[in-house]
Design brief:
mainly alpha, 3% strand
């Protein structure tokens, strides 16, 4: 029941975010979600032990507040670079932030691993954030976001059903033993069907064929995003990225596919006008 209630609340909030709020509120929500996703990623990274660490030295997944803030700033700089055009001081600022962190932190294998995780988290979340901001900046941004979310979520539901009902060979047993090739194919099929049905959200001039192709591409990217988060969780020894959504886990557990899917949809916008 807790899981069902959480899903209903999230669905209602998502629809409101897509259809009922002005663009600036939507984009602010995207930035806040990205910042929280960075927090979850770095809390997981804080649990990773460097070679030679004692078990009790892991800190229980804790990361200094200043380190979390620096990671969020780095992610926002990456996002800013992703939406900027022409020469930009953003890359210089990002590298300066990493250099300052190296100067003030102890030079240990664990610190180096943490800095690497911070840079990777900034890329992982920053560039998709830039894509989401670019896609949702206009008055039609809410409908574009709803199309993206619908294709990702329906595709993921298809993957779950396909994996449970058909089973078969594992897709990536070292990362996620529950994922199967049958589930992956079902994800593409369901995502393509969702894209065909929801394509009017993008443009009344686009037909179901274009929508289906977009849905398949987004679903394939979402599957990769899911596997990447599985890699992150497996490396840190975590089952979930957090506990913010009762019964569902963390925010990253819910948006890992959306992050990669947003990049796929933005890339498709170069060829398909919407």
């Amino acid at each position: 029941m807790r899981r069902v209630i959480s899903a209903a609340v999230v669905a209602a909030g998502t629809l409101a975010l897509c259809l009922l709020v002005p663009p600036w509120v939507r984009q602010l929500a995207i930035l806040l979600a990205a910042a929280y996703a960075c927090r979850e990623a770095m809390r997981m990274a804080g649990a990773i032990q460097a070679p030679g660490d004692e078990p009790e030295a892991s800190g229980g997944g804790s990361v200094p507040a200043a380190g979390l803030a620096a990671t969020v700033v780095l992610m926002l700089l990456v996002a800013g670079f992703g939406i900027s055009s022409g020469p930009s001081a953003v890359p210089l600022a990002a590298m300066a932030l990493l250099a300052i962190a190296a100067l003030v932190l102890p030079a240990t294998p664990r610190t180096l691993g943490w800095l690497g995780a911070a840079a990777l988290a900034a890329l992982w979340i920053g560039f998709p954030t830039a894509a989401l901001l670019a896609l949702t900046s206009g008055e039609d941004g809410g409908r574009i976001l709803l199309f993206l979310l619908a294709t990702v979520m329906v595709g993921e539901a298809g993957a779950f059903c396909g994996g449970k009902l058909i089973g078969g060979p594992r897709l990536a047993p070292a990362l996620s033993p529950g994922k199967t090739w049958a589930g992956f194919v079902a994800q593409l099929v369901f995502g393509g069907a969702a894209g065909a049905a929801a394509v009017p959200l993008l443009s009344a001039e686009l037909g179901p064929g274009i929508g289906s192709a977009l849905g398949v591409g987004i679903s394939a990217a979402a599957a990769l995003g899911d596997l990447f988060e599985s890699f992150w969780k497996r490396a840190s020894g975590r089952k979930d990225s957090g506990r913010i959504i009762p019964g569902h886990g963390g925010l990253l557990d819910r948006i890992d596919g959306v992050l990669f899917g947003a990049l796929a949809l933005l890339a498709a916008s170069v060829f398909v006008a919407f």
